[in-house]
Automatic annotation (TrEMBL):
Keywords, alphabetical: Oxidoreductase
Domain Gfo/Idh/MocA-like oxidoreductase N-terminal: 2-119
Native source organism of the sequence: Mucilaginibacter yixingensis
Protein name: Putative dehydrogenase
Gene3D superfamilies: Dihydrodipicolinate Reductase, domain 2, NAD(P)-binding Rossmann-like Domain
GO terms assigned for molecular function: nucleotide binding; oxidoreductase activity
PANTHER family cross-referenced by the UniProt entry: BCDNA.GH03377
Amino acid sequence: MLNIGILGLGEGRSIISAALESKKVQLKMMCDISIEMCKHRAAEFNFHHYTTSYQEMLDDKEIDIIAIYTPDHLHAQHIIQALEAGKNVICTKPFIDDLGKAAELMRVAEKSGKKIFVGQSSRFFEPAKRQRKDFEAGLLGELITIEAYYHADHRWFLEKPWALEQAFKWLYGGLSHPIDFVRWYLPEVEEVMGYGMISSNGKTAGLKNEDTMHFIFRAKDGRIARVSGCYTGPTQPPLRDSGMSTVLRCTEGASQADYHELRYSVTDKTGEEKIITWGDKALKHYFRFEGQSHHAGEYQNYMEYFADSIEQGFTAYPDLKEGIGTVALLQAMDRTLKTGQPVKVADILKEFNLTREELTA
């Protein structure tokens, strides 16, 4: 069994639960800069091996994996420290907050020989897993187009001072989920065009960046995709709609994976139509805390998949290169919001001395 150390205990709550429940990974140590947060999580999970020193955790030779859940702007630094200490790394999304450290990350990762996995948790939710399984089994035919969205009533964010700062962008925190779905099925997105705005709710609160956005993508082979996000208004009833959903429209079928509802619908190539939901066992696996916050089940799924990749010698995706590619696409989306013009992903990569070939090698 592999040992894991967890850094960042606010966002790291789900993976603490995941590690404590896992039969493949054992929690060895928790770390947070705040001693109060350490004590809080220690009491919550009755696990009392914690530290406020990241270096102490890195120096523990029994730890195989460092799982990073710190603020976005610290990810690159914390990943590099873990790799240099000889650890494999899980890092939550968004993987890094800009591409300035991407080339250095690739160099350090190659030198270390250790694995990096990006915690794009949504892929590891039950409806998304079933959708992918049906697609790979050929039940839908060839992909024509994909539509993905993440809409949430996050008006409570507008009461938080950090959400009103210039640095806060729903583009990176929210849309990284549907963008990951698009790249999962259409990895070679070449160009993006989008519009965004601040809603009247956002303007009243003093929001600095867009809370409502729609984007169109074009892949190298000419196929197109669509992504949207709206965050400061009510959502429809879950029986009618889903807060996060991915629709595949293919040559012989179509499917839709609804995230929180644990609901999947499909019309396959035989013409059969199905709507599938999952019951208590799955609900208890995915949702372990109050409401539907902190979906620990998907974290356990991807943590164990990564552990298998270390022990069996395969690559767990999304890996370092795929994570950097997603950040490049997010930065292209950020650019098109500012300019109102289409933006090529290759132009963003070039600004940071990166190429598409490096990320697909």
